[in-house]
């Protein structure tokens, strides 16, 4: 059975590249009817924080990437790592090295001077007929893996194909520090072995770690997983995606008003495709995705494309769900609607005019509160002296309506235009600017109905006063 794992380090928020890796790993397992494991690689004790762990869990939950096992925490498995290290020392596949950091640095500098790859020279590596010096007193050794000295390690990568590594280029990796704490590459190997991981989907910045991990697995007699190294994501400018490109953490996209299904859909298309199809349901992704179909070239992140995609999902979403999601974004600008049914109608009327929930809150804010000023161009084009008579006439018609409904409002506006022998736009546009502060809104009847009779009349009065003052 296929079994994948997502193994983030909790040294910060889950960034968008990590989220794509989690998605690809999750989809590969689900496509093959397999299982997923969540593993928190928190051995960096100085930088790992509980807040970062929670942010990762919250991000995965928001994206809908559940896991069948875990979360497992590496810091809770130290006894197991020490057990395996002891077994390797006893088997001779690992050994103690008493070199100081300064000595190792000197080895590397000497190798560079000889124009060779900087590496540990193996002076404490046991060999037949080799006499090792006595351990220096008071020096705590590291433990090194005894990497094969000859041959080639082959990575049959699902994305990049066959990659060969000359074992002579791989020095003997430190697998335990002087204080006995295990190192990253060793913990990963033991975890993958113990958890029965069959497929490792991760960023291609780990490719150079892979031959070392394969050799350790082989020394332990463990099955070797299949690897799929996902290419990096580039920013809009073609450089590696980083903080300078804006929102790179998953939680920031949530806070900026993106829907999780839109973010997931966008991420799956970063390096993977199915013909020219752009929109995928979760079920379609699971049915169609396989890690072997991921492109080996880096993908460019396009914020404009994500915004467009999010708008498609906003327009397809249940308005009641959007109303619920919109509330915190409205609260952020000081608006807290009491009537949920009314808020749902506000969403329906305005959703096509926004690409994010933040924009939706901003574009619909006029419904709930008076605006500070008229948009300059809208006022210049529509709040002119000629607008005074249409505004006065339609105000009286609206004030006299027996019921406040979109149909009744529409009839009143049309009647005013007919009475003044004007085209409908000569009445509707000044009215729209008076009520909304700008020349763009949903249909004038729906707009006025949502704002409400009294606020509409008050805003028309404000516009008339503005005209009487000479637009100052």
Automatic annotation (TrEMBL):
<comment type="similarity">
    <text>Belongs to the class-I aminoacyl-tRNA synthetase family. Glutamate--tRNA ligase type 1 subfamily.</text>
</comment>
<dbReference type="GO" id="GO:0000049">
    <property type="term" value="F:tRNA binding"/>
</dbReference>
<dbReference type="GO" id="GO:0008270">
    <property type="term" value="F:zinc ion binding"/>
</dbReference>
<keyword id="KW-0067">ATP-binding</keyword>
<keyword id="KW-0436">Ligase</keyword>
<dbReference type="InterPro" id="IPR033910">
    <property type="entry name" value="GluRS_core"/>
</dbReference>
<dbReference type="InterPro" id="IPR001412">
    <property type="entry name" value="aa-tRNA-synth_I_CS"/>
</dbReference>
<keyword id="KW-0547">Nucleotide-binding</keyword>
<feature type="short sequence motif" description="'HIGH' region">
    <location>
        <begin position="8"/>
        <end position="18"/>
    </location>
</feature>
<comment type="subunit">
    <text>Monomer.</text>
</comment>
<dbReference type="Pfam" id="PF19269">
    <property type="entry name" value="Anticodon_2"/>
</dbReference>
<dbReference type="InterPro" id="IPR045462">
    <property type="entry name" value="aa-tRNA-synth_I_cd-bd"/>
</dbReference>
<dbReference type="InterPro" id="IPR049940">
    <property type="entry name" value="GluQ/Sye"/>
</dbReference>
<comment type="function">
    <text>Catalyzes the attachment of glutamate to tRNA(Glu) in a two-step reaction: glutamate is first activated by ATP to form Glu-AMP and then transferred to the acceptor end of tRNA(Glu).</text>
</comment>
<feature type="domain" description="Aminoacyl-tRNA synthetase class I anticodon-binding">
    <location>
        <begin position="321"/>
        <end position="464"/>
    </location>
</feature>
<dbReference type="Pfam" id="PF00749">
    <property type="entry name" value="tRNA-synt_1c"/>
</dbReference>
<dbReference type="GO" id="GO:0006424">
    <property type="term" value="P:glutamyl-tRNA aminoacylation"/>
</dbReference>
<dbReference type="InterPro" id="IPR004527">
    <property type="entry name" value="Glu-tRNA-ligase_bac/mito"/>
</dbReference>
<feature type="domain" description="Glutamyl/glutaminyl-tRNA synthetase class Ib catalytic">
    <location>
        <begin position="1"/>
        <end position="308"/>
    </location>
</feature>
<dbReference type="InterPro" id="IPR008925">
    <property type="entry name" value="aa_tRNA-synth_I_cd-bd_sf"/>
</dbReference>
<dbReference type="GO" id="GO:0005829">
    <property type="term" value="C:cytosol"/>
</dbReference>
<feature type="binding site">
    <location>
        <position position="243"/>
    </location>
    <ligand>
        <name>ATP</name>
    </ligand>
</feature>
<dbReference type="InterPro" id="IPR020751">
    <property type="entry name" value="aa-tRNA-synth_I_codon-bd_sub2"/>
</dbReference>
<keyword id="KW-0963">Cytoplasm</keyword>
<dbReference type="InterPro" id="IPR000924">
    <property type="entry name" value="Glu/Gln-tRNA-synth"/>
</dbReference>
<feature type="short sequence motif" description="'KMSKS' region">
    <location>
        <begin position="240"/>
        <end position="244"/>
    </location>
</feature>
<dbReference type="GO" id="GO:0005524">
    <property type="term" value="F:ATP binding"/>
</dbReference>
<dbReference type="InterPro" id="IPR014729">
    <property type="entry name" value="Rossmann-like_a/b/a_fold"/>
</dbReference>
<dbReference type="InterPro" id="IPR020058">
    <property type="entry name" value="Glu/Gln-tRNA-synth_Ib_cat-dom"/>
</dbReference>
<dbReference type="GO" id="GO:0004818">
    <property type="term" value="F:glutamate-tRNA ligase activity"/>
</dbReference>
<protein>
    <recommendedName>
        <fullName>Glutamate--tRNA ligase</fullName>
        <ecNumber>6.1.1.17</ecNumber>
    </recommendedName>
</protein>
<keyword id="KW-0030">Aminoacyl-tRNA synthetase</keyword>
<dbReference type="InterPro" id="IPR020752">
    <property type="entry name" value="Glu-tRNA-synth_I_codon-bd_sub1"/>
</dbReference>
<keyword id="KW-0648">Protein biosynthesis</keyword>
């Amino acid at each position: 059975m296929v079994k994948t794992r997502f193994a983030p380090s909790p040294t910060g928020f889950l960034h968008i590249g990590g989220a794509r890796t989690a998605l690809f790993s999750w989809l590969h397992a689900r496509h093959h009817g397999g299982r997923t494991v969540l593993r928190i690689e928190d051995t960096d004790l100085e930088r790992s924080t509980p807040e970062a762990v929670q942010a990762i869990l919250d991000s995965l939950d928001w994206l809908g990437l559940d896991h069948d096992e875990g979360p497992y925490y590496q810091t809770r498995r130290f006894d197991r790592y020490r057990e395996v290290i002891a077994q390797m020392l006893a088997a001779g596949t690992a050994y103690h090295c008493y070199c100081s950091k300064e000595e190792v640095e000197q080895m590397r500098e000497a190798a560079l001077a000889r124009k060779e790859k900087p590496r540990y020279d193996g002076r404490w590596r046991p060999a037949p007929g080799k006499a090792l010096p006595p351990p220096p007193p008071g020096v705590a050794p590291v433990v090194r893996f005894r990497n094969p000295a000859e041959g080639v390690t082959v990575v049959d990568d699902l994305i990049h194909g066959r990659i060969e590594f000359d074992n002579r280029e791989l020095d003997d990796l430190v697998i335990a520090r002087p204080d006995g704490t295990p190192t990253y590459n060793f913990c990963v190997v033991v975890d993958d072995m113990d958890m029965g991981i069959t497929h490792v989907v991760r960023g291609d910045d780990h490719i150079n770690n892979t031959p070392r991990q394969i050799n350790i697995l082989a020394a332990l007699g463990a099955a070797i997983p299949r690897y799929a190294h996902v290419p990096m994501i580039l920013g809009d400018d073609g450089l590696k995606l980083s903080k300078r490109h804006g929102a790179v953490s998953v939680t920031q996209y949530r806070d900026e008003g993106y829907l999780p299904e839109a973010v997931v859909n966008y991420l799956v298309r970063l390096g993977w495709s199915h013909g020219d199809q752009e929109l995928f349901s979760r079920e379609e992704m699971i049915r169609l995705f396989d890690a072997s179909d991921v492109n080996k070239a880096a993908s460019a992140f396009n914020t404009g494309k994500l915004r467009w995609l999010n708008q498609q999902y906003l327009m397809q979403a249940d308005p009641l769900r959007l109303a619920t999601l919109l509330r915190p974004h409205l609260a952020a600008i000081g608006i807290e609607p009491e009537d949920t049914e009314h808020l749902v109608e506000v969403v329906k009327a305005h959703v096509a005019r926004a690409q994010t929930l933040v924009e939706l809150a901003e574009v619909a804010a006029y419904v709930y509160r008076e605006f500070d000023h008229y948009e300059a161009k809208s006022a210049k084009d529509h709040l002119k002296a000629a607008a005074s008579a249409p505004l006065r006439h339609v105000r009286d018609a609206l004030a006299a309506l027996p019921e406040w409904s979109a149909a009744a409002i529409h009839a009143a506006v049309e009647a005013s235009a007919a009475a003044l022998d004007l085209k409908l736009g000569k009445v509707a546009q000044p009215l729209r600017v008076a009520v909304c502060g700008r020349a763009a809104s949903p249909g004038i009847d729906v707009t006025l109905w949502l704002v409400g009779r009294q606020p509409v009349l008050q805003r028309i009065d404000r516009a008339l006063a503005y005209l009487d003052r000479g637009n100052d």
